[in-house]
Design brief:
The structure is a homodimer. The first copy, chain A, is α/β, with parallel strands linked by helices. Chain A is built from 13 helices and 12 strands. Chain A folds into 3 domains: 44 residues, 434 Repressor (Amino-terminal Domain) (Orthogonal Bundle), CATH 1.10.260; 122 residues, Rossmann fold (3-Layer(aba) Sandwich), CATH 3.40.50.2300; 127 residues, 3-Layer(aba) Sandwich (Rossmann fold), CATH 3.40.50.2300. In chain A, the strands form 2 sheets. Chain A has a 6-stranded parallel beta sheet with strand order 2-1-3-4-5-11, sandwiched between helices. A 6-stranded mixed beta sheet of chain A has the order 7-6-8-9-10-12, sandwiched between helices. In chain A, helix 1 crosses helix 2 and helix 10 crosses helix 11.
């Protein structure tokens, strides 16, 4: 492997001069700089990333915090972050935090020891002190942390209004909302949107907390069908929750969309895999992940951000679970 | 932040002595070692990971190569690898390669510059030269690369036999196999198992290539139903492919499982989200990911491996798509 000494020898300069050229620090004559660059090229020299990291206190590493990569919303975000980061020469360390503060703190410690350049945080914990006290750039993705941290979200409230009004336009008279966990900003905003649309139209409704998991949602929906047999529309707080509602409808022998129409929220690929295919509110997941990575890289390069609030519009995606008569 | 100098001062030894204790290299008296360790503890000193990396030429980083983290098989593997790695103090860099050789080569270059300690490769490319020529440990996960690389797979052929015999036991008389891409070892082994079981029972059958994606599988299955209306059983090469077959059955108004029984392969959480829920061949995905990480860490620590071939048994998971009469 070519070393910095080989480059110095070939360029006929000292190792210190090569180092100054590589790190763009200190005085180097134009002629010496040219010789060094030619030598680097002809020898195909690759500077040692770790040594550069020690000198610059940067590593080209960014940490991506997700609750659990096996929850199907996050792989699509992770892919987008990784694509954007890689194209700028950064590598992404995957951190499954299970939304636990102690795991987040441990990852922050380990990443800072490795001179990580920044963090993208798509997890929710009650405390935010440990995030605010990191001394590297942070971007919040799919959640709000603080006004001092750039935030990338979708228009959860407006999307929820669209979902609810779509069910009403399809003729639903009694609509259930399977809401996500209380305290999670996206779930709270979707709930607010649902309430607003429903009150505008004076439609019978019921709201239950169903988490963001399929099992909880399946049980909650079965209970709803038993208690309120006339429910004919369901707005699920996520696509995974919607899949649970579809399973409950199947078990209770209620045909979708004939007897009950269902719409989800997220727009993950799961929706297209379901039968019938799931109507949903599409978040631009890939664009959101890319934007978070871009903002983080701007902060790492100490560029000024145009804004700290980046809200992406959602779109109503009508598929089979909310239309037709079969 | 506490530095190595603070530790030396408190322990009343030289910085070089502290360094020898930290790196477990060179002679240090028992007494000096004790003083240094006490000083490290009382000052809560955390050695700079990057400086240690430069000295040891290791970084505590491992690379995980997946084709695309948004394909639902890989997040579950990634979670397992990350859990096992984190518990041993390693961090995992996520690498989406799209199974392209140039992307793999680029990642290998970047990771080696960062002194990555090893790679787990769950992607398939035609060439393997660039993998064989890396100078850090490699483990192959869900694929075979070479006899010289430890391999973690599931018993694809035996699982395919179980799937096919289950359809036959359920009374299927004409079975289609939606096979995965030719040349991908797991897909080839499942095909071989299917053929063996079908020939043992003299059952009418047809095999088509349907990739590992939902769109391709949906189209392939629709064509099959048109051409061979008496197909009453489908063994899909993956759970995602099975979801595509279920969508095709819905479009062609063939009830699952009454008119056609379907079984997948993988055992990802998608199967439980489908309606009806998907019968499948369960691979122990989490255990496989953990085993790959453990083998890699043994190699990094230069321990001898018990074996280079780690094949996990699959289990038949009977759910709704292959049983009952509704």
């Amino acid at each position: 492997m070519t070393t910095i000494k080989d480059v110095a020898k070939q360029a006929n300069v000292s190792v210190a001069t090569v180092s100054r050229v590589l790190n763009q620090k200190g005085y180097v004559s134009k002629q010496a700089e040219r010789s060094v660059k030619n030598a680097i090229k002809s020898l195909n020299y690759k500077p040692n990333a770790v040594a550069r990291s020690l000198y610059h206190k940067t590593s080209g590493i960014i940490g991506l915090f997700v609750p659990d990569i096996s929850n199907p919303f996050f792989p699509e975000l992770a892919r987008a972050v990784e694509d954007a980061a890689t194209s700028e020469g950064f590598t992404v360390v995957l951190c499954n935090t299970d939304s636990k503060q102690e795991k987040e703190e441990k990852y922050i410690q380990v990443l800072q020891q490795k001179y990580a350049d920044g963090l993208i945080i798509a997890t929710g914990t009650d405390s935010i002190e440990h995030i605010l006290s990191t001394n590297i750039p942070v971007v919040a993705l799919d959640r709000y942390i603080s006004d001092h941290i750039p935030t990338v979200v979708s228009s959860n409230k407006a999307g929820a209004i669209d979902a609810t009004e779509h069910l009403i336009a399809q003729g639903c008279q009694f609509i259930a909302h399977l809401r996500g966990p209380k305290g999670v900003t996206s779930a709270d905003d979707r709930y607010t949107g649902f309430k607003q649309a429903i009150e505008d139209h004076s439609i019978a409704h019921v709201v239950v907390e169903a988490g963001f998991e399929i099992g909880q949602s399946e049980v909650a929906t079965r209970n709803l069908f038993e208690k309120y047999p006339s429910i004919d529309g369901i707005f699920a707080g996520s696509d995974v929750t919607a899949a649970g509602a579809m399973r409950a409808a199947y078990q209770c022998k209620r045909a979708v969309p004939k007897d009950v129409k269902i719409i989800g929220f997220d727009g993950i690929s799961l929706g297209e895999m379901l039968t019938p295919s799931l109507s949903t509110i599409q978040q631009p997941i890939y664009e959101m992940g890319q934007q978070a990575a871009k903002l983080l890289m701007m902060m790492i390069e100490k560029k000024e951000l145009p804004s700290y609030w980046h809200e992406f519009s959602t779109t109503l995606k009508i598929r089979e679970t909310s239309t037709g008569s079969e």
